[in-house]
Specification:
mainly beta, hydroquinone:oxygen oxidoreductase activity, 583 residues, glycoprotein, six-stranded mixed beta sheet, 4 helices, 39 strands
Length: 583
């Protein structure tokens, strides 16, 4: 029986021994490569777009790729095989950082860099200059196999690297979550992680050990592939995130103390853009030079914050959104984007303004319980023909929304159309009852109700959850807080509810490992089985791997049980990860 286990939690942290995986088991495990690839049978594709191998990928034909693969390809069903395996060496190191020129404090770097180096499936990108944008095109690497030799050189802590958003089809052991898919990597040890680039787009990798990524243990991932709209140049990853002058461990203790009295966590000291910012007369703005008037530019925006949802914008320029997380979407035009922790948006903007310099803005949103002690973070985009490309911009922003509402399903419409089967949900929801005193309840085989009630978790780090799955041992300890989905290839529906009496009702960025999920809907207050289902979206709803649960509200998602393993479903606020709390 192919079983899927979902661990509902908001933390993992400890040290343990590392496990070395034989090279022939990097991707598929001891059982070898599956003889058939699991297709999402229950996600009925009704796309009228047809893969076309008659054109060549280029600035005016970005939807094309090669050999019958294009933006119209459902990459959950098939992907190209490049026959190429690339290997990288990454090392997590202790260091000190002051990215905005402010207080220097202990931090973590990968290969001596903050943020860590960008991984392209076709190559490891050199460290980017603050003053140069990435080259227009990279190797065609959708379908590459990537091996990463990762060394933990942190003296007193374990670690593990999670490849955020990567499906890891039948290779759950490579997901990098201590206590769930592996033993944490002990100090001085090395592990080889592997992934196959079945998807394309923008993501990131980060430590999944306590709140280490808040200290700098992260970097971007770019998997080049087709796109749903044309552009001339790819500017590469644009990483935005919060920064604190205390370590993540110290901040986690402060956040925990504040929570006990019903208060919010301390505000961030600053927001960092591509590893830098200004603090008074110190630090530096991230700068992008050389915009050519009339050209279209792709920007890959990633929010790596510990605790801040941000709104991003570029003065006088509109964004055309072409992906949400790793899912291509129908092009959608907006002045700004709300991006929560762990999310990615690929956008295109046209250099259609007077030659000059313009502010890019990353603003924390108070209504998302995101607070910082300084004004908006700023970076600079300069045109090639600007009178003085080094001059500070004088541009101003349009009035931006201050709410904590994600883009509606009607805006983030997947390029490849899929329909979620609602039959089982509708048959069962009429008998649905909530017991908000319990963490998880189930209804039939399909509907799971998850109440975010700050319940602690206790995991045996020497025996990861995946070991139970491998041993076909279903006698899981109750403290693991597991939900077993034993039936493969059916739809499972999740209603995630923050109880109305929660001491600190805040939005939670919910992230699922090993799957994209379909966002059926969300709302304020308590989910009502009698009325709430009428507002859910079943025809081609938004797909992604991180979505906001409204503070004091509910979020409804669905996904097929088509990727067996032990997968984590959690809030991506770092202090929740560190505080060992689970819904």
């Amino acid at each position: 029986m192919r079983s899927t286990v979902i661990a509902c939690l908001l933390t993992c942290a400890s040290t343990a021994l590392a496990e070395t995986i034989p090279p022939d088991q990097y991707l598929w495990g001891a059982g070898g490569r599956p003889t058939t690839i699991v297709k999402r049978q229950t996600a009925t594709s009704t796309s009228v777009k047809v893969a076309d191998s008659a054109c060549t990928h280029g600035p005016s034909t970005r939807a094309c790729w090669s050999d019958g693969y294009s933006a119209a390809t459902d990459f959950d069903e098939k992907w190209p095989s490049t026959g190429k395996t690339v290997t990288y060496n990454l090392e997590l190191q202790e260091s000190t950082c002051n990215p905005d020129g402010g207080d220097e404090r202990p931090c973590l770097k990968i290969n001596g860099q903050f943020p860590g180096p960008t991984i392209y499936a076709g190559k490891l990108a050199p460290r980017s200059s603050l003053y140069n944008w990435y080259s227009a095109d990279h190797h065609k690497d959708w379908g590459d196999i990537v091996l990463i030799n990762f060394k933990n050189s942190v003296r007193d802590n374990g670690t593990g690297i999670h490849w955020h958003g990567m499906r890891q089809l039948t290779s759950c052991a490579q997901d990098g979550v201590g206590g769930i898919t592996e033993c944490p990597l002990a100090p001085g040890d090395t592990k080889t992680y592997s992934l196959i680039a079945t998807q394309f787009g923008t993501s990131w990798y980060h430590s999944h050990f306590s709140a280490q990524y808040g200290d700098g243990a992260f970097g971007a991932i770019v998997i080049n592939g087709p796109a749903s709209s044309n552009y001339d140049y790819d500017l590469g990853p644009y990483i935005v995130g919060d920064w604190y002058y205390k370590t993540s461990w110290q901040m986690g203790l402060l956040a925990h103390s504040s929570l006990q009295s019903g208060g919010p966590p301390p505000p961030a000291d600053t927001i960092i853009i591509n590893g830098t910012n200004i603090n008074g007369d110190k630090g530096a703005y991230a700068r992008t030079f050389g915009l050519i008037k009339g050209k279209k530019y792709r920007l890959r925006i990633i929010n790596t914050s510990a605790d801040n949802t941000l709104r991003v914008s570029l003065d006088n320029h509109k964004f055309t959104v072409i992906t949400s997380d790793l899912v291509p979407v129908k092009p959608w035009v907006t002045d700004s984007l709300l991006i929560t922790i762990g999310q990615r948006y690929d956008v295109i903007f046209t250099a259609n303004q007077d030659a000059g310099t313009y502010w890019f803005r990353a603003s924390s949103i108070a209504s998302c319980a995101s607070l910082q002690s300084k004004p908006d973070a700023l970076s600079i985009f300069a045109y090639q023909d600007a009178p003085d490309p080094n001059a500070l911009p004088v541009s101003t922003s349009v009035t931006l929304p201050t709410d904590c509402n994600e883009p509606a399903n009607s805006n983030l419409v997947p390029w490849v159309k899929n329909t979620v089967d609602q039959t089982a949900f509708m048959n069962q929801v009429k008998n649905l009852t909530f017991d908000l005193t319990r963490t998880v309840t189930t209804n039939g085989e399909n509907i799971v109700m998850w109440s975010v009630n700050l319940t602690a978790i206790d995991i045996n780090w020497d025996v990861p959850t995946l070991q139970y799955v491998a041993d076909k041992n279903t006698d899981y300890p109750a403290t693991y807080n597991l939900i077993e989905l034993p039936t493969p290839d059916i739809w499972t529906y999740w209603i995630i509810q923050e109880p109305p009496n929660t001491p600190v009702p805040i939005p939670h960025p919910i992230h699922l490992h090993g799957h994209d999920f379909y966002v059926l809907g969300r709302g304020n207050g308590q989910f009502d089985p009698a009325t709430s289902p009428a507002g859910l979206t079943w025809e081609n709803p938004t797909r992604r791997d991180v979505a906001l649960l409204p503070g004091g509200g509910w979020l409804a998602i669905a996904f097929p049980t088509d990727n067996p393993g032990a997968w984590l479903l959690h809030c991506h606020i770092a202090w929740h990860l560190e505080d060992v709390v689970v819904p």
